[in-house]
Amino acid sequence: MLRRLFCRALVLVAAVVGFAASAPAAEKLKVLIVDGQNNHNWQGTTPVMKKELEQSGRFTVDVATSPPKGQDMAGFKPDFKAYDVVLSNYNGEEWSAETKQALLDYVNGGGGFVVIHAANNSFGGWPEYNRMIGLGGWGGRNEKSGPYVRFRDGKIVRDESAGPGGHHGKQHPFQVVVRNAEHPITAGMPTTWMHAQDELYDKLRGPAEAIDVLATAYADPATGGSGEHEPMIFTVAYGKGRVFHTPMGHSPEAMHCVGFITTLLRGTEWAATGKVTLTEIPKDFPKPDQVSVRGGRFE
Ligand code: ZN
């Protein structure tokens, strides 16, 4: 009897130890969203991303909001190093030299960085930021900033022709096409899916060093686009860090797209860890010719 009790106790101990051993894998990743200035509705988009990231069960999210435009930025010093990944929803005035250096050091040292839509408009005159994000728009960007990057004849090409960086046509739903399904962010993702109404950024320019274009979208001249297949999901290697960049996400409504949400979760996890465990494709994922949105009215 005693022996049997002892055995049962051992089994119990083993079960507890086993559980403890598996706990770190389930530990949540810490995300810091940076916002506070943007020519977009950051007050509307940050909560959408925060909610989706938290609801996945994989992340906890804090938000660092900068002072408003025209106010002293000296005190804006987010503690980037305390996080697994920093997500920029910021398009505004320059940060202090100290804060800019802290972001570079963080990513250089192996931190994750996520760039959403107009975050690639910011800091046009900051060369290291441009290297980190790969491609950007507006902010004085032109041929001196680097090439356009397009998908032509089955491959990614760099187009050095002169012209401004940053443009978009009329907002509309558009099809996203996966060009590299080997990457953890796009592995198992349907090859084509219809993104909800959004601005299709075209003519982005930048150093585009160590860039890996995973998906593109055709910027149709009929809606005012460039007539090129433009990068929509891509990564950039910067120092020891990983950068995930999507030009999608103009509005809260565009972020309700299930394809955007899936991409955001996978991209953020990959930037944080280099892996993607959120591999399940949601049942309501968009079809090649059909938009799918969650939460709230789509306009
Ligand atoms: Zn926009």
Strand content bin:
25-35%
**Uncertain stretches:** 9-23
Question: How would you spell out the order of helices and strands?
Answer: HEHEEHEHEEEEEEEEEHH
Distinct ligand kinds: zinc ion
Compact summary:
This protein is of the alpha/beta class. The chain has helices at residues 2-26, 42-55, 97-108, 127-133, 252-255, 258-273, and strands at 29-35, 59-65, 85-88, 112-116, 148-152, 155-159, 167-168, 172-178, 192-198, 201-202, 211-218, 229-238, 241-246.
Fill in the keyword field for this structure.
13 strands; globular; Rossmann fold; alpha/beta; single chain; binds zinc ion; 6 helices; 299 residues; two-stranded antiparallel ribbon; 25% strand
Note down, in words, how this protein is organized.
This protein has six helices and 13 strands. It is an alpha/beta fold. The protein has a single domain (26-273), classed as Rossmann fold. The strands form three sheets. It has a nine-stranded mixed β-sheet, with helices on both faces. A two-stranded antiparallel sheet has the order 5-6. The chain has a two-stranded antiparallel sheet with strand order 7-10. A hairpin with a 2-residue loop joins strand 5 and strand 6 (155-159). The termini are far apart. Residues 40, 117-118, 199, 250 line the site of zinc ion. Zinc ion is lined by residues 40, 117-118, 199, 250.
Task: Summarize the SSE layout with pairings.
Layout: H1 2-26, E1 29-35, H2 42-55, E2 59-65, E3 85-88, H3 97-108, E4 112-116, H4 127-133, E5 148-152, E6 155-159, E7 167-168, E8 172-178, E9 192-198, E10 201-202, E11 211-218, E12 229-238, E13 241-246, H5 252-255, H6 258-273
Parallel strand pairs: 1-2, 1-3, 3-4, 4-13
Antiparallel strand pairs: 5-6, 7-10, 8-9, 8-11, 11-12, 12-13
Bound molecules: zinc ion (ZN).
